[in-house]
Amino acid sequence: MRNDRHLSRDDLVARIDSGELDTVVVAFTDMQGRLQGKRFHGAYFRDHVLDHGTEGCNYLLGVDVEMNTVAGYAITSWERGYGDMELVLDLETARLLPHLPGTAMVQCDLAWTDGSPVVQSPRQVLARQVERAAALGYRAVAGTELEFIVFEDTYEAAHRAGYQHLTPANQYNVDYSVIGTSRVEPLLRDIRNTTYAAGLDVECAKGECNLGQHEIGFLFNDVVVTADNHAVYKTVAKEVAAQHGKSLTFMAKFDEREGSSCHVHLSLRGLDDQVVFWDDADGGRRTPLYDSFVAGVLATMEELTLLYAPNINSYKRFADGSFAPTAIAWGEDNRTCAVRLVGRGAGARMENRVPGGDVNPYLALAAMLAGGLHGVEQQLELEPATEGNAYASGKPKVPTTLRRARDAFAASAVARAAFGDEVVDHYTNAADVELAAFESAVTDWERRRSFERM
Fold this sequence. Notes:
single chain; Ubiquitin-like (UB roll); Creatine Kinase, Chain A, domain 2; 2 domains; 9-stranded mixed β-sheet; 6-stranded mixed β-sheet; 20% strand
């Protein structure tokens, strides 16, 4: 058990036997970072799923965000017949969903029907990098800071309005504002308490810059635990918002104001949990391992940006002077850089400020590990810190479009060595699908500019 708020196998069965639980959600995280799966009646889950898992169509790793089947994936197609994948239960993730009566959840890995792992699954992509780190004598811990925007409109009303002219929960910048969070506290409190009861270690909530924008933070943990919890949090937050008659979005860039980020904090530890990023001698300083790891993340930033910013909308967030990074640079506690180093001793860690709220946490953490371990293996030297305004530093830029990021990822020797050709080709095709959908769409911007005046 990950903590005493998770359910052991025996506890899960006992609660089903007593009638306390009548529904078990079995879910995995798809390419878009969403939980997908099935709701089982408790007795059926106990008798038929608990020991054997279940199945799901392999198209679930080959659709766009609107669940359309699309071409170009090696593992799933009409020609291959859209067969099944096995959903392999990870009982360490068993948890109550207290906002849903009588309901628990178990998250899954994906395997083919012969038992071999589905390597394109986001959880498997991260697991491969975790194994790579372990082979070098390290484990990775991480935390994600995920922002969202709250609206007074229900999801159904927002849909009917075409997501236009929605009413934000706050009418002005409430960054760090106590009165600003008080206005939304019934919802924020419910999300905090619900996720805590579901096994997440909640830190705090705070207001952010955009209208109705807020953030709820969680304590760092093992990278896989953090990614699992991140996926649960996004789903629970939306469900709780709906119960309050509101909606919220994790879009990277909802409007022309500040975007929603997902800053990812990461550090390595020894396999016995010793600190390896910091040397306390001579007053304390970064270790060569830490420097090489950060150097690797920076060296691979451009070619792995696709895993930090997977959608067309992701790139709208990268704007000078917006607290979203544009320069591939690092600094000591410098929020204008793509990588910010913070903390000392056991708290020493790097913050990757490139990902937005739409990121898939498994893929972002896998990319950071892949880049950092590349730096360690190649003993890369860390360039001097950027001081002052990184936006005006002249440093290389984060890719500004999905197409540039897609091309860099597809051509990356580091990505292919770290993830394998199957994974790189799979997520390159995902970018192609997103690009094709966007390039064929007619936007409201085009109509406003062209309907009468062109």
